[in-house]
Amino acid sequence: MPKSGQDWPLVSDMVAKNQRLIVFTSIKSKEETEGIAYQWNYMVENHYGNKGMEAGSCSNREESSPLDDTSKSLVLVNHFNTAPIKLLTCENNSADLINMLITCYGSAGNRWANFVAVDFYKRSEGGGAFQAVDTLNGKLLCGCDDIHACTPESTFGACGS
């Protein structure tokens, strides 16, 4: 596990080594005794539940370091209601989700989320959680708004320009 904000392995490297699983725990002693990554040593996280869905606000969860703590190399964005209400998730997992990811980008010291937690990931108005992940992967890989613009064969060119 990387220390002091170092980079994590690429998925392609993990696949090549047939080591494709990273497990995190919220129990600090398990890192020493079992080798399971204690999440708060490696990531920051916004509030979960209704408090984490306030438009224009992205504050850190109490257990987390401040979102802009760059000594933690991973960012987790929660975006789901305290009570899972399936009828509300179409709206939550659409424009609201993308807007929250942009808000949390700024709160996390201009770092895009590495993980996104939502309820009912298949429900949305449009691309939903899948589009959000495509956006995040595009931002992380090549700075574009969609991962599909990052390939040499892309008809988007340099991010559509």
Automatic annotation (TrEMBL):
GO terms for biological process: lipid metabolic process. Signal peptide: none annotated. InterPro entries: PI-PLC_domain, PLC-like_Pdiesterase_TIM-brl. GO terms for molecular function: phosphoric diester hydrolase activity. This is Uncharacterized protein. It comes from Ficus carica (Common fig). The lineage of its organism: Eukaryota, Viridiplantae, Streptophyta, Embryophyta, Tracheophyta.
